[in-house]
Task: inverse folding
């Protein structure tokens, strides 16, 4: 069958090319080849995904990638992507797959929110010289503090539930080994240790080599229970039950057998080459009561020393669900918005299911406060956090901390080509092919990830200093520091913010 | 020389205890060296044996609550009574025998060890059992099992005897839906419409017979059942059609 799908990109070589063939070796998608006889590099443009690996590594900067300037008759409704998707499904009869978060033109509420700053009537604070605190504690906070007098001293007698101390409210979100490479996990683990935060194993288990980073690790338990045993559960600080993911609410995962190599097999504790299927639901959880059963199974198995997080996708009824999760005994509720990333998800699901994290986190924070149980859980926001302002806005809307995933991958070379599901990632990030994994140097990955956290953390200090605050705690749920622009009354009400000018 | 008093045998009265209190007592007893624990008056307390990593014995009298032996690594639990849902949830090794019936999702995600249920079980027994290297879980159900038996099964051995308390035909539908590893053995016949679309009936080999006999003997002995009565029947073996049932689902 002839494919009707045209090339999306064109690879162009300038006369600066010295035929070193670095580009041919680097292209993992089979878009470039070299013909010795006529000493020419040819491009098979239909295979190019615009990952920019060749562009970046070309020593003479001779390569550029351009959009294929193929013209369709203009149609605002039947866009080229829509047309080509139909061709692809007509050719295969399958579900369209994609990687990375929702790329469609849905509105961003982060981009309609602006911060306040101190002018004249209250002083701003210069974080470069004055103390400024980003330290964040995750875990249940007591609703009252009992203070007793002992030998003339005041002593707090209230017993705290376990807490996790973060030096910055930014954590790395769940990305499982298998979906991403071991070298990425190495980088994430080390950067978390240096920065005093947590990374998250995702549902694919914890590699033997990374147990030493346990104090900076969240271990995840998903419906597939891959690599979950007693040692794993007790390895980290937090055990996260993954119920849902922002990019694919309500559906499970299929890690294809060809990605299950020796390392992945050992870590997930399944045979090499078999598919790793994560069912859509946990089959021991059909209700909040069942969720409580798993929460306490994990607490019993970890002797009540670890925090239990429950991660859900942001969906319509998220506030009521989060309330149920809090009442089921979780210490952390993690909400993943519809912009959240993915290694492999049906495109139709990614593009059309879930709601924005900004609305979800505001609704959840509001609901838990009204029910008087906000102190019983920490809230973690994730899904589409692009910069430090998004972090600060999520916190002002009610989050205690955020997860970043896509931003972390970008920091180590990802170009959002959205081909994670192919396992061919030319940057060594979303692949288990040893030749490709080698391209991601864990030492460099660690430095880049750490730098990103450092840069964002300083920026957050600058922003809250400008607002006259000296601790991130004073920003949490502090919606007075936000104003909305171009939002309807209902949206403003859900977000709990005033319109700009009021 | 001081004489060491052995406290390796210990009885805990579970009456009126919340599961967290009971399990705290169990952990303390295990920590102080008990290797044989008798729990009496158990009435639905969850998580008995959960997360215990020690080769030791539990005798449970009463009804064991949900998640019995979850994430467990080593113990041998005998329940003199019934058990609730998720017996052996994600267990790594050890043995659980239930001298009665059990609820839904028995053996969910178990990776090693053995679970024997004398009587009937609910829905989705053996769901997502897996195996890894020398770890190969075995789940034997003496009575009938219900729908979605062995769903998503990725490894291990699941045997359903349809025998106790009385011989019955196989009652489950959607057997082995999504199955991509391991094997299911059913005592008696099963109709094609009862099977999930990812499994097929295959011939029983000599090795299968040896393996079955070993478990049937142990099972009959454990529960004082008539071995000949159990073994004197034909067995149906189900295997997955593919280790990659959903490989053709996507447009790459």
Result:
């Amino acid at each position: 069958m002839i494919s009707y799908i045209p090339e999306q990109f064109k690879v162009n070589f300038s006369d600066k090319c010295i035929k070193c063939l670095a580009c041919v070796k680097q292209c993992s998608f089979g878009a470039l080849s070299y013909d010795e006889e006529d000493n020419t590099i040819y491009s098979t443009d239909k295979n190019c995904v615009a990952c920019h690996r060749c562009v970046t590594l070309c020593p003479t900067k001779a390569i550029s990638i351009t959009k294929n300037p193929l013209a369709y008759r203009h149609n605002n409704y039947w866009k080229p992507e829509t047309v080509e998707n139909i061709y692809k499904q007509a050719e295969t009869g399958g579900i369209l797959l994609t990687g990375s978060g929702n790329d469609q033109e849905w509105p961003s509420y982060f981009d309609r929110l602006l911060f306040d700053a101190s002018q004249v009537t209250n002083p701003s604070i210069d974080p470069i010289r004055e103390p400024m605190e980003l330290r964040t504690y995750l875990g249940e906070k007591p609703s009252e503090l009992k203070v007793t007098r002992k030998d003339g001293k005041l002593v707090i007698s209230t017993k705290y539930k376990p807490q996790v101390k973060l030096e910055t409210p930014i954590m790395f979100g769940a990305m499982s080994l298998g979906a991403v490479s071991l070298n990425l996990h190495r980088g994430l683990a080390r950067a978390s240790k240096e920065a005093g935060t947590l990374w998250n194993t995702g549902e694919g288990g914890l590699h033997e080599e990374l147990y030493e980073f346990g104090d900076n690790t969240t271990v995840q338990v998903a419906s597939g229970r891959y690599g979950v045993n007693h040692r794993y559960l007790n390895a980290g600080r937090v055990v996260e039950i993954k119920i849902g993911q922002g990019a694919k609410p309500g559906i499970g995962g299929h890690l294809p057998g060809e990605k299950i190599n020796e390392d992945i097999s050992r870590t997930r504790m399944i045979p090499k080459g078999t598919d790793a299927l994560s069912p859509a639901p946990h089959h021991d959880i059909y209700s909040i009561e069942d969720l409580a059963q798993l929460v306490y199974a994990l607490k019993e198995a970890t002797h009540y020393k670890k925090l239990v997080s429950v991660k859900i996708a942001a969906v319509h009824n998220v506030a009521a669900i989060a309330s149920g999760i809090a009442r089921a005994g979780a210490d952390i509720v993690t909400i993943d918005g519809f912009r959240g990333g993915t290694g492999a998800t049906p495109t139709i699901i990614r593009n059309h299911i879930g709601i924005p994290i900004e609305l979800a986190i505001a609704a959840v924070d509001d609901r838990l406060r009204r029910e008087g149980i906000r102190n019983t859980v920490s809230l973690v926001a994730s899904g589409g956090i692009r910069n430090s302002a998004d972090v600060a806005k999520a916190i002002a809307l009610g989050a205690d901390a955020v997860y970043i995933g896509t931003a972390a991958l970008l920091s180590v070379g990802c170009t959002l080509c959205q081909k994670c599901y192919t396992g061919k990632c030319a940057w060594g990030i979303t692949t288990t092919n040893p030749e490709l994994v080698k391209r991601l140097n864990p030492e460099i990955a660690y430095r880049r990830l750490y730098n990103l956290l450092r840069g964002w953390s300083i920026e957050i200090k600058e922003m809250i200093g400008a607002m006259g605050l000296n601790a991130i705690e004073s920003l949490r749920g502090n919606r007075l520091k936000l104003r909305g622009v171009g939002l309807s009354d209902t949206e403003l009400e859900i977000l709990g913010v005033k319109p700009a000018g009021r | 020389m001081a004489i060491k008093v052995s406290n390796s045998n210990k009885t805990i009265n579970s009456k009126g205890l919340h599961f967290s209190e009971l399990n705290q007592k169990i952990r303390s007893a295990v920590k102080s060296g008990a290797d044989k624990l008798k729990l009496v008056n158990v009435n639905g307390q969850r998580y008995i044996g959960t997360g215990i990593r020690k080769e030791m014995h539990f005798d449970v009298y009463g009804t064991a609550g949900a998640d019995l032996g979850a994430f467990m690594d080593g113990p041998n639990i005998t329940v003199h009574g019934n058990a609730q849902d998720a017996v052996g949830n994600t267990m790594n090794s050890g043995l659980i025998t239930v001298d009665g019936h059990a609820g839904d999702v028995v053996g969910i995600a178990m990776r090693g060890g053995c679970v024997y249920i004398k009587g009937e079980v609910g829905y989705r027994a053996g769901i997502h059992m897996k195996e890894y290297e020398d770890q190969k879980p075995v789940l034997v159900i003496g009575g009938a099992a219900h729908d979605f038996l062995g769903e998503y099964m990725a490894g291990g051995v699941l045997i359903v005897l349809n025998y106790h308390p009385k011989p019955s035909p196989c009652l489950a539908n959607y057997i082995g839906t999504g199955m991509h590893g391991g094997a299911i053995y059913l005592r008696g016949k099963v109709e094609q419409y009862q099977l999930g679309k990812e499994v097929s009936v295959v011939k029983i080999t000599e090795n299968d017979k040896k393996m079955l006999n070993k478990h049937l003997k142990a099972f009959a002995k454990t529960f004082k059942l008539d071995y000949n009565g159990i073994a004197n029947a034909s067995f149906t073996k189900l295997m997955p059609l593919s280790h990659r049932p959903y490989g053709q689902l996507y447009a790459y």
In short: The mean pLDDT of chain B is 94. The helical segments of chain B are 19-31, 206-223, 227-231.
